[in-house]
């Protein structure tokens, strides 16, 4: 039993030290390993397979809206990066520079892409001539590099995986429509598949993307009450089009600039899954994203017929992603591993169960134990997975709402941020000076101006002037 | 009509200038665009969607054999690259070096991965302790960088997409088995899906991978008679295990070194598809890999009911990948585009066809035209796609066999290489001096020692000494 206990004991409890709990989970659930490369992580099969499922489902949803995938070079020549002024200012300080190819120095150094707006614009300038060439709705799946000083697995790393969509449209209206469409697609995906409720809204000018006219965001609340920006969608207007001279001939034979958008989600989502759903036994994966949905653990597997029955059950559950753990570890150890890895459902089957034509089903999130007849096992498992998916979203929503406060003056606001981890809703005048002051004095940043505005007061909590919008504020990852 | 002709006229014929024909096809079929980054190409939707289909099918086949996907960092610290002597010698001259992160110089420079053996070994040394941890059968999909001086789209570029499998096994036998298993998986995939017949065999020591004990290869013959190495699988023995100290405790509690393999295929396969199947009207895609299998072209689409009928046919053909070209281009232009892009089947449907309850089907490879009743359209399309897939492989095999020669002495060999583009089968003593001399005097390299050996003579064509094996020789991409 000593050995069996080790796996669980090795995790710090989240109440004791949330950051350490997080680090323990990513390691012990075998999602990542640290590498010899500073700030870069290795995505192990446990972590990468979650990303594969995210990719598969997002990609399907993208394509339904007409997205086409492409692949751009990973390098950006320095002169190309510099074409759009705000953009280069935002990214130049945090890129990795390639200066030598083989044994020779390069004539012009190149950065490893931190994002690919400049490459897409350069390409669009080449291939867009007429209104017939529009819209272009391209996306790429790749990795990008940002030279971060402090890194944490999934949340902030030097290299990370993501998708970046880049579109070009004939009109400003169409670009705005696409920007919002993708934001909603992201939010729906997170809610329906990852069971993470999202606040949808617009970033303040201070927080928007380098080079964007408007940035929209979806924001989630983690278990510790900190916010996580989970996806962003940017409307560039025609700023990049002017910088890169992307023009088309319209139906009246006049030259027009295109209107552009970009939007991205990253492996950060895996961090969100961990911090929204995890518990002190490890990861808890929403069934729809879990690489393995059901782990069958044979009990007394050396006894005749047990392994055969386990294999038979796997066949019967062919509609789900099922594995049998037939390694030579003890059942207790297998239970701990299945819990640590967040596999939604465990089925225990032993000689006594076989005799009674039944199995024990244990749900990962609630630990609920059910004894089920083998005759309707598949049906039951399906029900449990559906219920679990629904209830995980519901619990996350309840947690978020219970940790969403509001403040009508600066004192209330400061107290809320200092004592109650979570979102604080408060009115703002729209002035960056107030936003800066709030961040400086409380550590909370503006997360977004939600689409669903509420009039909780008339005046800005900071300066007392007339309020322009309600903002979600919070400390964030 | 002038405009319609342009698309086709713009292609150089392959008989006139094969290299130019190739370049024309990759551009006009919109597979790639050149980028502002030297030697790097942009994979446009037409090209990337072929890669997506290759990925999907290969990945499925990998996973059936127990492969798990992971993701490693894109950077390799210089000290890590240097751990295995042969490996670093092979790759150091052609890597891109990152020397600065943000505004500061790095303490140790890092290369962008040209391949990831060193990173996998470093990781394996961390995670492999016991025989219980074996085998590890990992793969990653990513891009790699090799600082090539002369580049050609798909065939040789500074950055390219690939998969790289890296495995660790308890025994030498198991490693050898996996090496051969993956080579056969590659060859089967190329033959069954890409309709490209392969020669399976072993590389000579001169041609093997930097650091490998044995390299196996699959070799294809292009339309112009040049060979293309299409996939390789390496058995490393325990060389890397010694260099990186990857040891496990066996069942008898003794420390043992692991035995490793690696294997990879790249976007080069798209070059092979073009050069094996293409013709003077453009690309010809094997139905199983074609992103669009059927293009429906409405004739006189302004007339009532035509576009509706085209949409109805698309629905009826739901089992295939079908598009309707309802743009405002002329039918002739649409035909040229469908041919240029290599879409296997075109369906023409106009007012007269609708009246007669029929459609015209045109097969891309043979240009065969069929008038088919709409009542059994789906069945007919299915038959045509199957036949086309089978016949494309058969034609490629006939072409290859017709361009495979044999030589029993050096004079015959030199004449064959000089006058008959293709493979030359000839005996070899196993001595690298002969291999070097053959290359120097004829330009032909050893492609492989095929698994299916034939005794076409007793002596080496070069030195006349006793022959050890029959080798396929040829000029290669």
Automatic annotation (TrEMBL), chains A, B:
Cross-referenced InterPro entries: aa-tRNA-synt_IIb, aa-tRNA-synth_II, aa-tRNA-synth_II/BPL/LPL, Anticodon-bd, Anticodon-bd_dom_sf, Pro-tRNA-ligase_IIa, Pro-tRNA-ligase_IIa_arc-type, Pro-tRNA_ligase_II_C
Enzyme Commission number, as recorded: 6.1.1.15
Keyword line: Aminoacyl-tRNA synthetase, ATP-binding, Cytoplasm, Ligase, Nucleotide-binding, Protein biosynthesis
Family: Belongs to the class-II aminoacyl-tRNA synthetase family. ProS type 3 subfamily.
Subunit-structure text: Homodimer.
Organism field: Anaerocolumna xylanovorans DSM 12503
One Pfam family linked to the record: ProRS-C_1
Family annotation (HAMAP family): Pro_tRNA_synth_type3 (MF_01571)
Domain Aminoacyl-transfer RNA synthetases class-II family profile, first and last residues per copy: 17-286
Subcellular location: Cytoplasm
SUPFAM superfamilies: C-terminal domain of ProRS (SSF64586), Class II aaRS ABD-related (SSF52954), Class II aaRS and biotin synthetases (SSF55681)
Catalytically driven reaction(s): tRNA(Pro) + L-proline + ATP = L-prolyl-tRNA(Pro) + AMP + diphosphate
Name under which the protein is recorded: Proline--tRNA ligase
An annotated GO cellular component: aminoacyl-tRNA synthetase multienzyme complex
Domain notes: Consists of three domains: the N-terminal catalytic domain, the anticodon-binding domain and the C-terminal extension.
Function: Catalyzes the attachment of proline to tRNA(Pro) in a two-step reaction: proline is first activated by ATP to form Pro-AMP and then transferred to the acceptor end of tRNA(Pro).
Alphabetized GO MF terms: ATP binding; catalytic activity, acting on a protein; proline-tRNA ligase activity; transferase activity
Any one biological process term the GO annotation gives: prolyl-tRNA aminoacylation
């Amino acid at each position: 039993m000593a050995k069996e206990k080790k796996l669980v004991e090795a995790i710090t409890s989240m109440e004791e030290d949330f950051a350490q709990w997080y680090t323990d989970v990513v390691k012990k659930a075998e999602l990542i390993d640290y590498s010899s490369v500073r700030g870069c992580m290795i995505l192990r099969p446990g972590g990468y397979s979650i990303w594969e499922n995210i990719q598969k489902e997002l990609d399907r949803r993208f394509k339904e809206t007409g997205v086409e995938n492409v692949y751009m070079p990973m390098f950006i020549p320095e002169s190309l990066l510099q074409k759009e002024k705000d953009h280069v200012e935002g990214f130049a300080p945090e890129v990795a520079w390639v200066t030598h190819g083989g044994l020779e120095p390069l004539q012009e150094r190149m950065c490893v892409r931190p994002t690919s707006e400049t490459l897409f614009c350069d390409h669009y300038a080449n291939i867009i001539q007429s209104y017939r060439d529009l819209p272009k709705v391209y996306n790429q799946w790749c990795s990008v590099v940002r030279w971060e000083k402090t890194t944490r697995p999934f949340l902030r790393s030097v290299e990370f995986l993501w998708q970046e969509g880049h579109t070009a449209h004939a009109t400003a209206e169409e670009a705005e429509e696409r920007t919002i469409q993708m934001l909603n697609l992201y939010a729906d995906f997170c809610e329906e598949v990852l069971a993470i409720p999202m606040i949808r809204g617009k970033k303040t000018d201070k927080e928007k993307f380098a080079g964007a006219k408007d940035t929209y965001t979806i924001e989630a609340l983690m278990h510790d009450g900190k916010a996580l920006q989970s996806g962003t969608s940017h409307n560039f207007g025609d700023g990049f089009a002017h910088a890169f001279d992307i023009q088309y001939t319209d139906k009246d034979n006049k030259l027009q600039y295109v209107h552009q958008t970009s939007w991205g989600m990253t492996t950060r989502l895996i961090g969100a899954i961990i911090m929204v759903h995890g518990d002190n036994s490890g990861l808890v994966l929403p069934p729809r994203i879990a690489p393995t949905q059901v782990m069958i653990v044979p009990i007394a597997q050396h006894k005749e017929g047990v392994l055969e029955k386990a294999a038979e059950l796997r066949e019967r559950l062919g509609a789900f992603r099922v594995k049998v753990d037939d390694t030579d570890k003890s059942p207790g150890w297998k239970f701990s591993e299945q819990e640590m890895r967040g596999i939604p459902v465990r089925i225990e089957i032993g000689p006594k169960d076989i005799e009674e034509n039944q199995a024990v089903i244990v749900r990962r999130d609630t630990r609920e134990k059910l004894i089920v007849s083998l005759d309707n096992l598949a049906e039951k498992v399906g029900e449990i997975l559906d219920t679990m998916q629904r209830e995980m979203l519901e619990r996350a929503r309840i947690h978020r709402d219970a940790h969403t406060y509001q403040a009508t003056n600066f004192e209330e606001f400061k107290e809320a941020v200092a004592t109650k981890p979570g979102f604080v809703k408060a009115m703002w005048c729209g002035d960056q000076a107030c936003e800066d002051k709030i961040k400086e004095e409380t550590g909370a940043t503006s997360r977004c101006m939600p689409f669903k505005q509420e009039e909780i007061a008339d005046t800005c909590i900071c300066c007392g002037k007339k309020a322009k919008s309600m903002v979600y504020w919070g400390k964030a990852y």
